Amino acid sequence: MRTTTINLFVAVGVLVGSLPPALLVGCASQSVAGGDDVGEISFDLTASPPEAQCAVFTLTRTGASTVTRAISLLPADPGGATLGGLPTGRVTISEQVFTFPCGMTVGRSAVWISDPQTVTLVPGVPQEISFVLRRSDATGEARVHTDFPTNQPTVTELDLPAPLDASLSLAAGPDGNVWYGAYNLDKIGRVTAAGAVTEFPLPGGSAPAALVSGPDGAIWYTAFNLGRIGRLTNDGTLLEFPLATADRYPYGLALGADGNLWFPESGGASIGRITPLGSITEFPVGNPASSPQTITAGPDGNLWFGDVGLNAIGRMTTTGLVTLFPLPTLDGQVYAITSCKDGNVWFAEWGTAKLGRITPAGVITEFSMPAGLPADSVASGPDGNLCYASPDNNRIGRVTPAGTFTEFLLAGAYQVIAGPDGALWAAQQTATFAARIARLTLP
């Protein structure tokens, strides 16, 4: 029997009367293995009315025993609760909210009560439920909207021939395929939509850290350990170009609006540019403490980069003029950055477990990750939203321009890209450290 994973989200609608906002906000995952019973639902509670201390849900399925579950709403509560063994099928659900701790509700009257709602809960099928919570003394009421979207992405996973701990970086190729660099194996590979894999060996010690589709129809990559920029054609023809200065290590790579490739130089406090013919120019950031690690072409025609040494986002024109924008939070450690279809640049702060958005004018907004665990990779998704991979949380996520998060379970995912086929692609490392690539169609 194949086990699938689905997500549950609880949202709050418009509140009317004397019930303070917001009752429940959060998300969760549950496992379903055939049968009629949902194995588990986990709630993350981010806010509750000051008076409310316990929410009790009662679920009854015809021909089955009643299931009652309580969620603590105390301010001191750590913010999470788990409801297990919930029924699916035709279920009647009601909610009560108490001003007493969950262990003290027996024999006491609820302050807010709901009308029961009868719905059919089917794993994998979205279901919306609206509770009308009214005070037991009839002094007011609130409408709380509870959403159970259980859609999950369609996932196809491909185990690569690479041995253990390949440490992959992905790119959408100019040929309609997905390409990957195996940092620890000195290889670059190509994956077709049908799953056919072709690998090309690189010079020993290359350590391809980033790949991008070039303006000339070739794949360009950074040979981090050798201090070179490489070019690989579809037929395997290979060229590598040494950086102009020794002891500098290119990490990220982006195609600029000027038709050249741009890269941050770790250890050199500079940003480099290489033309399609292999001519390299280096532009200093202007501060010896600078340590640029990642780069993207912005919607404004400039290059944007994350500077770990200066705890800042940098903007560089194609003529080398640099402007720095300090992060609002210390120790951000920006190792991932991308340009999005909303006209802004988004980035992941590994050190603070936040996602950031910066406008072309330099205005920064930060969003805390739902589980408090950092994202290792960000990409502009096929639907125009930001997508990210959070390997410590085994999640792929999506964020709207307004900062609304949706997360999906994908074990070991640490990088995401928008593929050339309109799908989201992810690099994974399994529990046994095997290399895997996944193709996802998000709901």
Provide a quick synopsis of the model.
The protein is mainly beta. Helix content is 0%, strand content 51%. The chain has strands at residues 4-10, 26-32, 37-44, 54-61, 67-72, 80-87, 89-98, 112-114, 117-121, 127-135, 141-148, 154-159, 168-172, 178-182, 187-191, 197-201, 208-213, 219-223, 228-232, 238-242, 249-250, 254-255, 261-266, 270-274, 280-284, 292-297, 303-307, 312-316, 322-326, 334-339, 345-349, 354-358, 364-368, 377-380, 386-390, 395-399, 405-409, 413-418, 424-429, 435-441.
Architecture blueprint of SSEs:
Elements (H helix, E strand, L loop, with lengths): L3 E7 L15 E7 L4 E8 L9 E8 L5 E6 L7 E8 L1 E10 L13 E3 L2 E5 L5 E9 L5 E8 L5 E6 L8 E5 L5 E5 L4 E5 L5 E5 L6 E6 L5 E5 L4 E5 L5 E5 L6 E2 L3 E2 L5 E6 L3 E5 L5 E5 L7 E6 L5 E5 L4 E5 L5 E5 L7 E6 L5 E5 L4 E5 L5 E5 L8 E4 L5 E5 L4 E5 L5 E5 L3 E6 L5 E6 L5 E7 L2
Antiparallel strand pairs: 1-2, 3-6, 4-5, 4-7, 7-8, 7-9, 8-10, 10-11, 12-40, 13-14, 14-15, 15-16, 17-18, 18-19, 19-20, 21-23, 22-23, 23-24, 24-25, 26-27, 27-28, 28-29, 30-31, 31-32, 32-33, 34-35, 35-36, 36-37, 38-39, 39-40
Detailed description of the structure:
The protein has 443 residues and is mainly beta. The chain folds into two domains: 145 residues, no CATH class; 288 residues, Methylamine Dehydrogenase, Chain H (7 Propeller). It has no helices and 40 strands. Strands 4, 5, 7, 8, 9, 10 and 11 form a seven-stranded antiparallel β-sheet that branches. Strands 21, 22, 23, 24 and 25 form a five-stranded antiparallel β-sheet that branches. A hairpin with a 5-residue loop joins β30 and β31. The radius of gyration is 25 Å and the shape is elongated. The N terminus is likely disordered.
